[in-house]
Amino acid sequence: MASTSSVASFTYNSVTHAAVGSCAISSQRPVIDVTYIGSYNTYSAAGLLSTALTLDVFIDCTSHLTLLTNLADAEIPRAFTVTFVAGDTITGTAYVTGFDASIVSGDVSRASFTLVCDGAPTFDGNVAVKGGSEPA
Amino acid sequence: MSIYTAVKVMLQTMSTVADADITYGQRNQTSATFPCLTYLVDSIEDLSLGSTPLRKCTLTIKVYSLVSALEAVTISADVVTAVATGTFDSIVFQGVAQVASILDEPTSGDGEETNPFICTTTAQIYYQA
After folding, report:
1. Which of A59, A77, A122, B102 is the S-S candidate for A93 at Cβ 3.0 to 4.6 Å?
2. Between chain A and chain B, how many beta carbons pairs sit less than 8 Å apart?
3. What ipTM is given for this predicted complex?
């Protein structure tokens, strides 16, 4: 099923952000090479999952205050939700780790935020992520 | 409430062109007086997520003068001033970008008569609707 951007949204720290031009989320689990010496084949183990988000917005410091605030305090990861369509979401907690803004002559101002996930994200509320409940 | 009427309402803030002489796309050749103005929404695109996304429309606004090229340019300067942020027909114009005017090349009719002088302004409007 194809869903359109008109039903998508990005929420951070309970605020659904306006003027989000694009929201990209990337989860990567790099493979660890555990091939033993003398092997004729490679062997691998699943590595650690890391997740990062990139937001491109039409910046408005009032509308995007929660993101800027988190970048400034940098201590508390906040809950985020990427909604593709109602019921299809990716949730988790993340820090804001990067912010780039620009204004070009004769154009409107734009900015991008980079967020890094703290712990495991939850895919669609149904997919169990290994390590979602870390050992104490 | 539509972007087309919102642009018309925005242009009606001008005092140099009568409301009846501001028309969409084509001059009203039977009743319009000069100077007159036409506007065209060339494109509309969604820029953000959500059910009421930020949108961008590209406008082309032509000012027609029978008197002189200078009059067309002068009124186009008023157009540039009129194209601004604000609320028009309940639509909020959040940003205006790339507003520029250029005087079109003068043309003559088949009988060598002078056609109206035309100055074309283009602009991009960012709005939420």
Report:
1. A77
2. 47
3. 0.78
In B, residues 27-46, which contact A (CB 8 Å cutoff)?
Answer: 46
User: Domain holding B119: CATH number?
Assistant: 3.30.70.1700
Nearest to A108 among B46, B53, B126 (CB): B126
Q: Is B59 exposed, middle or buried (0-12, 13-18, 19+ CB in 10 A)?
A: buried
One digit per residue, the tens of pLDDT, for chain A of length 136 reads: 788 888 899 999 999 998 999 999 999 999 999 999 999 999 999 899 999 999 999 998 888 999 999 999 877 999 999 999 888 899 999 999 999 999 999 889 999 999 999 998 998 766 666 665 665 5
Nearest CA in chain A to B126: A108
Q: What is the CATH number of the domain that holds A20?
A: 2.30.110.20
Helix (H) or strand (E) holding A52: strand A50-57
CA distance B34 to chain A (A): 31
Q: Record the pTM.
A: 0.83
Number of helical (H) and strand (E) elements in chain B, helices listed first: 2, 6
Q: How many domains does chain A have?
A: 1
Q: In this structure, which amino acid lies at residue B111?
A: G
